Structures are given as C-alpha cells and as structure tokens.
Amino acid sequence: MSKLTIDKQITVTSGKGFHLNDFDCEYNAKINKEEAVTLRQDFLDRIEVLQEKMYASDNHSILMIFQARDAAGKDSTIKHVMSGVNPTGCQVVSFKVPSSNELDHDFLWRTNLHLPERGRIGIFNRSYYEEVIVTKVHPEIILNQKLPDVTSLKKIDAKFWKNRYESIRNHEKHLSDNGYVVLKFFLNVSKTEQKKRFLERIDDPEKHWKFSYADLQERKCWDQYQQAYDEMITETASEHAPWFVIPADQKWLMQLVVSKILLETMEAMDLSYPKVTDEQKELLKKAKIELESE
User: Fold this and answer.
1) Model pTM score
2) Of 142, 144, 155, 248, most Cβ neighbours within 10 A?
3) What homologous superfamily is domain 10-292 in, according to CATH?
4) What is the pLDDT of residues 155-200, one digit of tens each?
C-alpha cells in the first residue's frame, strides 16, 4: 500500500477559478527521500508490467507532456520515471526552436509527427504549448511563422490567442477520441530554487553544459511567464487532458509524484494481454508438438 497520498489540488481538470499562484512549489508529503526512492522503484516495477500489457494489446497510447521553467527538472524526471520501461514501448522527443521546415507548417504539425503509436508511451519534453508560452512573452516570434494577415504585433491580439487555445483544445479532444490518454505536467519550480540550481550549474564544471546565459535573460521575464503559464492551464485544462501542477523544488519528490500519477492512470485503464482465440490455441498446441518432435 502506497504511503504517498497525492493532494487532489495538483490535478486541474477545469480552468474555472484556476490561479497558478495558489499552488505551492514544495510538496508537504510525510515521506523522506530514502522512502521515496524505494517507493518510486515499486511504482516503476508495476508500470513496467502494465506497459507490457499496453504494448501487447496495441489499442491505447499515453502522451505525457512536460512543461516547465528552465532548471525545473524535466530531463531528470523523464529519466527517472521512464527508467524501468522497455524502450520498445516508449519514445521521448525534446522540442527545440522550430526549424525553417517546421515554420512552413501549422504550429501543431511538428508534434503530430511524433505522436506515439498505439501501445506506446510518448513523452514530449516541451511541446506545442511553447506556442502559447514563449510566444506569449515574446510575440515577435509569431511574425516569423508566415501566418496570413499576421504582419505586425498589433495583429497578435486577444482573438489570435483565443483561436490558438481553441486549436489546442480541439486537438487534445481529437487525441482522446482516438485512444490517446493525455497527461500534462507543469513542473512548478520557485524563483528561489531556480536561482540555486543556476548557481550550481555555474559552480560545477561538470554542469556547465547545462547552463545558458539566455536562460538568465528569460528569468528576467519571470512575471510574464507566470501569467503565460496561468493562462495556458486556465484555457486548456479538461477532464480528458488534465494538467498536473507538480511542486518541483524537491526533485526526488516530484519524480515520485509523477510516477504515481502514471501508475494510477495505467491501472485505471484496465489493461490486459490480448485474448487468444480457440483457433490460435489449436495452433499453439500444434506448434508445441512440432517443436517437441524435432
């Protein structure tokens, strides 16, 4: 029996009344790091069994979307939560700055190319949500997307963002209707903790590669990003594609919470191996006889 009880408040299925500032960056769980690591491994062992059943049944897919500020721990969370899953049934895609080819298509195109096949778990490290986060803080980026009639910043108005949120909602409804289970994680790191992690990257030569001066410049836009994340969740949280606002100041606890959410989601899917028909059973018996007679 799990010692970890997930606060229902971290699950957002409706944007009504949502305010990101109401969510803590620390999780008050009555569990220490050693217990959490042991419990997380138990969760991962159970996920591995369920993932094999999902892969064998080949009729559902899980899409896990991770969004967060810099240094919130997306990479490490994905690494630890998916460490026990068979690579055959899992795929991770990290989305960077759009290429010129990607900019020649609609903003959902490049992520659609990487949707997981039936039976697989797909993980998006960043996603189409960048198109209502970074572009919200830096709307000049939109002008490079070759959109008809969007020729100046004045054209990027409330109606523009309303249409973009609507596209995302419709997209996720379409995915849900076609067998995808969509889980969206916002890793909620505090400004104080981000500063600490940035300094660790600067002070540790082995972490220098993780630090970019551009990240520090984006930190100066903290309040603008906070507003963008708030609106993102408000506009796109739903029953079929919920947001989970995960306290991210303690990485080991964040990883445990994410793994528990994935486990509980898979358990609720009532996964099982495909049923064998009578004809297939007869062929199995025939195959056994042939093999044993060699």
Assistant:
1) 0.94
2) 248
3) P-loop containing nucleotide triphosphate hydrolases (3.40.50.300)
4) 999 999 999 999 999 999 999 999 999 999 999 999 999 999 999 9
